[in-house]
Amino acid sequence: MKLAAVTLTGAALALSAAACGGDKVESGDGGGDKKTVKVGLAFDIGGRGDQSFNDAAAAGLDRAKTELNIQTEEISAKPDEPDADKEARLKLLANRGYNPIIGVGFAYTNPVTKVSKEFPNVKFLVVDADQCKVEGANVLGACFSEEQGSFLVGAAAALKSTTGTIGFIGGVNVPLIKKFEAGFAAGAKAAKPDIKILPAKYLTQPPNFDGFKNPALGTDAAKGMLDKNADVVYHAAGGAGIGVINTMGGAKKFAIGVDSDQYNQPALSGVKEFILTSMIKRVDLAVFDFVKSTSDGTFKAGTKAYNLTNDGVGYSTSGGKVDDIKAKLDAFKADIASGKITVPTAP
């Protein structure tokens, strides 16, 4: 059954409104006499509903609510906010008794490091820990080999292109997104050495992070690549990627999604036949694994890798557009998992 929603009151509400940009509290009741675990999740820019990275985290939380006895609170980030706001958000959750707490996105690495020291009895997860490094006996960092999954969709792009020209659009020019670019290019060249890869387009430069949330920027970038004869474009741009996919689909050309299986995203239902595949990043699994480990007492601090060897990254087959090349993609996957192919992490 569903319990009544919990609401913020008094000073906590004022802090939430000022520092957090909104909240959502829900409860799940798994029955029995087990103590309910209160899980706090702080989203990256865009929050639940971005059809990509944050929604992957939300899927993991939703699974935990279904399978475990937990109560949750979700809070979203604001664009271009300082670390102090993220720290305030984490402290708000900790002071309200939420344990464990999840920070979604590499920008939470430093705030979690700081706040975790003030709350040594609270377990923290950083999804996409910066440089795959975290500190503290109560902190776990989830790290992904995005370059490996991107290699596979890069190979798919090259094999399915009919113009011989493909492109990559990154949301914000940061080292994490460079991993997507590097893997994509390596996979494309491995599959078809003579493929033309347009110069990568980054929507914004830090500290401007609109490139992860403004679809109009993705639209303009995709139009530019269509003008240069690209018929397959891969985006790693979060919510801004919606503009990329809609633009490519509108031109009846292929787009490649990211993080979630974007073929199944409601906001893209009108153009899903032009979503070739998506690079799946199992943020949902990382969130669920963490919540489960804190619930059953198996939590271990440090970092946990998600890659092709444990299906922490991969590619989607929804829509059947890559069925004819699946054997080739899976052969590349096996060679990467075995170490026969080493995928670069920088362009």
Automatic annotation (TrEMBL):
Keyword tags: Cell membrane, Lipoprotein, Membrane, Signal
Its record classes its membrane topology as: Lipid-anchor
PROSITE patterns for this protein:
PROKAR_LIPOPROTEIN (PS51257)
**Keyword set includes Transmembrane helix:** no
The UniProt entry, under InterPro entries, shows: BMP_lipoprotein, Peripla_BP_I, PnrA-like
Q: Where in the cell is it found?
A: Cell membrane
For this UniProt entry, what is the primary localization, expressed as one broad class? Answer: membrane
What cellular-component terms does GO give this entry?
A: plasma membrane
- What's the protein here called? BMP family ABC transporter substrate-binding protein
The species this protein belongs to is: Actinomadura craniellae
